[in-house]
């Protein structure tokens, strides 16, 4: 069926549709929140996010954006450009799903995800989204960039449970329900290699 596939490349094999939202890790022992992965459909569904206690979205994709601003006090200072407090705390990593990312960008992705979990916002009206709920990591399809970033994060923050990056990737693939014949692109090899280098750099930083 055509509607069971998504994001088909020109002349290539389309990817099978994944769950709209996947719980990857429940109650991370350090942060006490659930960690989810989704593609564009899940990340754009505010009702679904609220139903699952998600207060923060970390967008891994450079070629996808969301407008979570929907309060009546909107300010538009450029045509078609609206700014204001979003309904969801939103962090943007901006990875390419393949070649082209700077060597340090995957390492930056790990620390941005940590910042989304650790950042304490001030008690000021200009910071209205201070809730500390669960976190969603997304990319367009929720199968490559998201898998790489979440696997890296689990490997580095839970090394006893995930002693290798490969162990973390296997776990995330299973929790995301990625078919075995799509593992070669979940994540893309260049992103897995980037995550492996980022893990080594992060360990060096933590030991400094």
| Number of beta strands | 9
How would you write the strand order of the largest sheet? 3-4-9-5-8
Q: Span between N and C termini?
A: 53 Å
The SS-based structural class is alpha/beta
Number of helices: 6
Largest sheet: 5 strands, mixed
Radius of gyration: 17 Å
Give the CATH class.
Alpha Beta
Which architecture per CATH?
Alpha-Beta Complex
- CATH topology term: Protein-Tyrosine Phosphatase, Chain A
Q: How many structurally independent domains? A: 1
CATH superfamily: Protein tyrosine phosphatase superfamily
Principal-axes geometry comes out as: globular
String of helices and strands: EEEEHHEEEEHEHHH
Write down the overall mean pLDDT.
88
Write a structural description.
The protein is of the alpha/beta class and 208 residues long. It has a single domain (18-207), classed as Protein-Tyrosine Phosphatase, Chain A. Helices cover 33% and strands 19% of the residues. The chain contains 6 helices and 9 strands; from the N terminus they run ββββααββββαβααα. It has helices at 40-43, 46-51, 105-118, 145-157, 165-176, 189-207; strands at 5-6, 15-16, 22-25, 35-38, 54-61, 75-78, 81-83, 89-95, 134-138. The protein has a 5-stranded mixed beta sheet. A hairpin with a 2-residue loop joins strand 6 (75-78) and strand 7. Helix 4 (145-157) crosses helix 5 and helix 4 (145-157) packs parallel to helix 6 (189-207). The radius of gyration is 17 Å and the shape is globular.
């Amino acid at each position: 069926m055509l509607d069971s596939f998504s994001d088909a490349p020109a002349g290539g094999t389309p990817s099978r549709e994944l769950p709209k939202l996947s719980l990857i890790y429940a109650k991370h022992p350090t942060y006490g929140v659930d960690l989810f992965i989704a593609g564009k459909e899940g990340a754009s569904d505010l009702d679904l996010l609220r139903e699952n206690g998600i207060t923060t979205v970390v967008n891994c994709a450079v070629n996808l954006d969301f407008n979570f601003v929907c309060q009546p006090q909107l300010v538009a200072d450029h045509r078609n450009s609206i700014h204001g407090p979003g309904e969801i705390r939103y962090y943007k990593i901006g990875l390419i799903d393949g070649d082209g990312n700077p060597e340090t960008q995957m390492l930056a992705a790990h620390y941005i995800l940590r910042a989304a979990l650790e950042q304490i916002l001030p008690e000021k009206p200009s910071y209205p989204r201070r809730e500390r709920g669960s976190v969603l990591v997304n990319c367009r399809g929720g199968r490559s960039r998201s898998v790489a970033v979440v696997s890296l994060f689990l490997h580095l923050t839970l090394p006893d449970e995930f002693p290798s990056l490969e162990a973390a990737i296997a776990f995330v693939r299973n929790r995301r329900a990625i078919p075995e014949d799509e593992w070669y692109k979940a994540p893309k090899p260049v992103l897995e290699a980037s995550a492996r280098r980022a893990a080594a750099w992060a360990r060096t930083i933590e030991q400094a």
